[in-house]
Amino acid sequence: MSMFSTGILVLTSPLHTLPLRIAPVLSSAAQVVERTLYVHLHPGLNLGVGGGQPRPVFIPPVVDLSSLITGLYSNAANVCGHLDVRVLLTNVRAQPNNASSPETGGTGVACNPFPSPQPLSHSPEVVLTDFALQDPGQSPLVAQCLQRYTGYCYVCTPGLASVLLHPQLQKLEEEVEKEGQKDDWDSRSERMETYSEVVVGGTFDRLHGAHKTLLNISCLLANKRFLIGVCDQELLKKKVLKELIEPYALRVQRLHEFLQDVKPSLQYEIVPLSDPFGPSVIDAQLQCIVVSEETRRGGEAVNKKRLENGLPGLVLHEIQLLKDAHHTEMEEEKISSSSLRSRLLGTLLTDPENKSHLPLVPYVIGLTGSSGSGKSSIAQQLEAMGAVRIDSDQLGHETYQPGEVAYNRVLEEFGSDLINEDKTINRRALGRKVFGNKERLKALTDIVWPEIAVLVKERIQQAREEGKQVCVVDAAVLLEAGWTDIVHEVWVAVIPEEEAVSRITARDGVSQEDAVRRLQSQWPNTQQVEQANVVLCTLWEPEITQKQVRKAWDLLQKRIQQSREGAKPPS
């Protein structure tokens, strides 16, 4: 079967049976669509022969629909986590009070949710459905009917393909037939209370199923305006692996795209949050805040502030957390951005630059990180796996030895009073001369760093002559010194500053103030990660670091194999 980048799944099964069908239907859809899967809900839609060409209608927001959306995103995370699933709500709206109004055609249910086809961020190339065929011979006619229906609702790619999914649900269908086909929207379907203006807050990093559930249900609840506060700056400082959080502008862009797809009729307002409350405690128009069991206390704190400000409290609408079926022992049980960030450790975050001037053998990794980051322990693990370790700190010591080029230049620049009795340079005294003086420090590094680079290149050449396959250049100043042109990839070890300070004071016997000053003299983690191909973190137990390094090494071997196969001339 052909694969399509973007598809739209039209769900037609009765609302009360959909929760049981959704996992196999999504699993089948994942065999056809590989990137974005839109979901359009129209329970009870008849695509069969004899019913005429069906048209979309408005369906009311009911509690069962909210539960279905939660289950849909939960199942999607379990069975097709690689897909960007988006539940569309353009055709979901509370019924007008006047059942005989022209808008409803006198039926009590509004019947024109799509005056013109809705454009989506990604144009569907294929439409799929769970519609159950009574007669396989009807398949071409049903497919044609489905294509026309979808084209009436959404702007699709010309030549829209169609696929009728056939999950193995005969047993389920028999059970449904026994209890009878009840009306999806009868009196037993509890209507949701909706509100003119709704607010939520969050980090919204790497938009995942739990975020989408929160946003979709908020869109169900909102009739007019939806206010979204996005954590920025101060609120990110305590986040796990904050260096891997997407930039604010990118998070906002992805939020806006998702929301415009889901319910374009709403007025969206996305604002940065520099404190836990933002506009939720001063905006008099807001009526409802959507929370989870985890953030309910935050919602209660918002209401306390609102009352202090003379504003009415907000309705707290609580949604359930989504369980992460794939979480590891170091990850949260719920679907969370921090777990997704931890899974990025050891993987290739950005493709390496084309370094055609570098031979492919040995493949050279530049490993860097701030003081206390654990990069040297990572380098030792890579060495144990077969890499040649090149310790630039050790090579730096060599450049200060009598007879080396840097030796004479340092004495010329900083004075012969630095000479010890054994003719070596007193590096402590040298450090005092450059400490706190950027110009003098630059004068020193301009002398020493190029000489270290020469020694690094010599060690790489030696490894090449010995037939070694991988070298790891362990260098704290890799990025500052501009050595990225002598390595194929940059790997960065990160650690929270407070943990780094604790390690430095314990290891080197210096004060916390000295440790902080040392870290502040180096590139911050965020700046280093911006240039990283691979990121690692030694915050947790050694066994977890070892798993990261092993993953990074195994993926590296695959990349090396692919790059060498790509470099071979055609036979």
From TrEMBL:
Matching PROSITE patterns: DPCK
EC main group: transferase
Places the protein is found: Cytoplasm; Mitochondrion matrix
Involved pathway(s): Cofactor biosynthesis; coenzyme A biosynthesis; CoA from (R)-pantothenate: step 5/5; Cofactor biosynthesis; coenzyme A biosynthesis; CoA from (R)-pantothenate: step 4/5
Membrane-traversing stretches: none
Catalytic reactions of this protein: (R)-4'-phosphopantetheine + ATP + H(+) = 3'-dephospho-CoA + diphosphate; 3'-dephospho-CoA + ATP = ADP + CoA + H(+)
Major site of localization recorded for this protein: cytoplasm
Pfam families: CoaE, CTP_transf_like
EC number: 2.7.1.24, 2.7.7.3
Example of a GO biological process term: coenzyme A biosynthetic process
Gene3D superfamilies named in the record: HUPs, P-loop containing nucleotide triphosphate hydrolases
GO cellular component, one term: mitochondrial matrix
GO MF, one example: ATP binding
Signal peptide (from-to): 1-17
PANTHER family: BIFUNCTIONAL COENZYME A SYNTHASE-RELATED (PTHR10695:SF46), DEPHOSPHO-COA KINASE-RELATED (PTHR10695)
Database matches in NCBIfam families: dephospho-CoA kinase, PRK00777.1
Assembly and binders: Monomer.
Function: Bifunctional enzyme that catalyzes the fourth and fifth sequential steps of CoA biosynthetic pathway. The fourth reaction is catalyzed by the phosphopantetheine adenylyltransferase, coded by the coaD domain; the fifth reaction is catalyzed by the dephospho-CoA kinase, coded by the coaE domain. May act as a point of CoA biosynthesis regulation.
Family statement: In the central section; belongs to the eukaryotic CoaD family.
HAMAP family in UniProt: Dephospho_CoA_kinase
Stated name of the protein: Bifunctional coenzyme A synthase
UniProt organism field: Salvelinus namaycush (Lake trout)
Protein encoded by which gene: coasy
